[in-house]
Amino acid sequence: ESSDTVRVFDETTYPEMSAGGDLTIDCNIRVIRLQGQQDNDNGRMLIVWDGPGIEDFNRNTLMASINKGGTYILTVTDTLSDCISRDTVIVVEDFQPAQIDAGPDMDINCLQDEVLLTASISGFDTLNNIFFWEGPDIVFSTRDDRNQTVRTPGTYNIRVLAGNPNCNVYDTVE
Question: What is the pTM for the complete model shown?
Answer without folding.
Answer: 0.73
